[in-house]
């Protein structure tokens, strides 16, 4: 009788410990793995390390030189660094992996993570082509994981205020034209690191040049503003304005995306005199100029106003707050949200169509 009481007590204690462990994981920092360290945006992890909403439990990088020399080394214990991604996943068991390597490698990251039930967030865009993107989507759905895509412009207050004005207030009427401008003077010109530019200027590892690097922003925002509506056709002109610097890829892209009721013009370039990520949205009753992340001009009811929209609330104001909330199921990632798989499948198809159009000189029918 005493033995049965002891056994029941031990079982009860075990259950309490298990419940406490699960509860701690749900309330504690997000267990984060990092796949690749060569992307210039890796600093987004570094500057948030001390914030407390996530902890980096493992870092994987196949290149020995970059594995030993990267910006995370000064912040993390040497034991969390691995040369092999799958070994890192099995030994550290992250909840989610963020990818900071070549766009071509995004598929390999999802192939490693999905069967293990580990969520993935990649830097924009989702994939180098539709073959990769479709395989990633297939794995995500089969293994019920999130595959999110991170864009800087997702966290701009002005973009969300533009969306609200259009969708909730009908401030400028039905849309008929959107013009999106993205880019900078060029990755060499702004002194991106060699570890970054080696693959950023490679047509295989990056999928293209400026058309991929900056064309993706406009495709993402337009798809979101149109609630996932698919285009009728895509026409593009890709140029090499600086072939001496970028001999393998385009450095200037103009993409015209035709929809049943409107036209979008996406201009991504490594030739702007300044860095820019702005957008002009025209409706039948007015227009919205999203000038910066925090300032915009709105012409409505025959009046032009300059607006500083309210700040976005957590977790919608930061990629890692958002990632944690999505993984822990505190929020739902809706279809065609800026980070969603559905939106970014359309983005990759627009970019692939743009590259095809530039080769033929003809529009690509959707």
Structure, described:
With 366 residues, the chain is an alpha/beta fold. Helices cover 35% and strands 22% of the residues. The protein has 12 helices and 15 strands. It has helices at residues 2-27, 43-46, 64-68, 85-92, 106-113, 130-143, 157-167, 194-200, 210-213, 215-225, 319-327, 341-360, and strands spanning 30-35, 54-60, 81-82, 96-99, 119-123, 147-150, 175-183, 233-239, 252-258, 263-269, 276-283, 287-290, 296-300, 303-307, 364-365. The protein has a 9-stranded mixed β-sheet with strand order 14-13-12-11-7-10-9-8-15. Strands 3-2-1-4-5-6 form a 6-stranded parallel β-sheet. The longest helix is centred in the N-terminal third of the chain and has 26 residues, at 2-27. The relative contact order is 0.14.
Please specify the SSE layout and strand pairing.
Blueprint: H1 2-27, E1 30-35, H2 43-46, E2 54-60, H3 64-68, E3 81-82, H4 85-92, E4 96-99, H5 106-113, E5 119-123, H6 130-143, E6 147-150, H7 157-167, E7 175-183, H8 194-200, H9 210-213, H10 215-225, E8 233-239, E9 252-258, E10 263-269, E11 276-283, E12 287-290, E13 296-300, E14 303-307, H11 319-327, H12 341-360, E15 364-365
Parallel strand pairs: 1-2, 1-4, 2-3, 4-5, 5-6, 7-10
Antiparallel strand pairs: 7-11, 8-9, 8-15, 9-10, 11-12, 12-13, 13-14
Helix pairs in contact: 5-6, 6-12, 10-12
């Amino acid at each position: 009788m005493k033995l049965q009481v002891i056994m029941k007590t031990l079982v009860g204690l075990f259950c309490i410990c298990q419940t406490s462990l699960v509860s701690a994981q749900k309330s504690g920092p997000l267990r984060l793995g990092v796949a690749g360290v060569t992307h210039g945006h890796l600093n987004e992890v570094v500057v948030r390390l001390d914030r407390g909403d996530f902890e980096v439990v493992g870092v994987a990088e196949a290149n020995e030189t970059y594995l030993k020399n990267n910006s995370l080394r000064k912040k993390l214990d040497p034991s969390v660094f691995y040369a092999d991604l799958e070994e890192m996943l099995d030994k550290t068991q992250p909840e989610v992996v963020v990818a900071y390597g070549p766009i071509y490698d995004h598929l390999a990251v999802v192939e490693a993570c999905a069967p293990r039930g580990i969520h993935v967030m990649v830097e924009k865009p989702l994939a180098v082509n539709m073959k990769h993107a479709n395989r990633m989507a297939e794995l995500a759905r089969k293994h019920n994981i999130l595959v999110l895509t991170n864009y800087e412009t997702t966290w701009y207050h002005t973009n969300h205020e533009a969306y609200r004005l259009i969708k909730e207030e009908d401030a400028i009427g039905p849309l008929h034209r959107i013009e999106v401008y993205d880019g900078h003077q060029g990755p060499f010109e702004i002194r991106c690191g060699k570890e970054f530019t080696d693959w950023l200027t490679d047509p295989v590892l990056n999928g293209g040049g400026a058309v991929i690097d900056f064309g993706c922003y406009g495709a993402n925002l337009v798809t979101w503003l149109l609630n996932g509506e698919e285009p009728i056709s895509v026409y593009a002109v890709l140029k090499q304005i600086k072939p001496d610097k970028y001999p393998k890829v385009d450095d200037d892209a103009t993409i015209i995306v035709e929809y049943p009721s409107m036209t979008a013009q996406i201009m991504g370039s490594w030739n702007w005199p300044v860095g820019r990520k702005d957008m002009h949205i025209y409706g039948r009753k007015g227009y919205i100029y999203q000038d910066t992340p925090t300032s915009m001009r709105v012409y409505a009811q025959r009046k032009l106003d300059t607006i500083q929209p309210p700040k976005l609330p957590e977790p919608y104001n930061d990629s890692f707050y958002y990632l944690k909330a999505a993984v822990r199921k505190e929020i739902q990632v809706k279809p065609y949200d800026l980070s969603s798989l559905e939106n970014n499948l359309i983005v990759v198809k627009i970019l692939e169509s743009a590259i095809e159009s530039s080769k033929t000189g003809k529009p690509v029918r959707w």
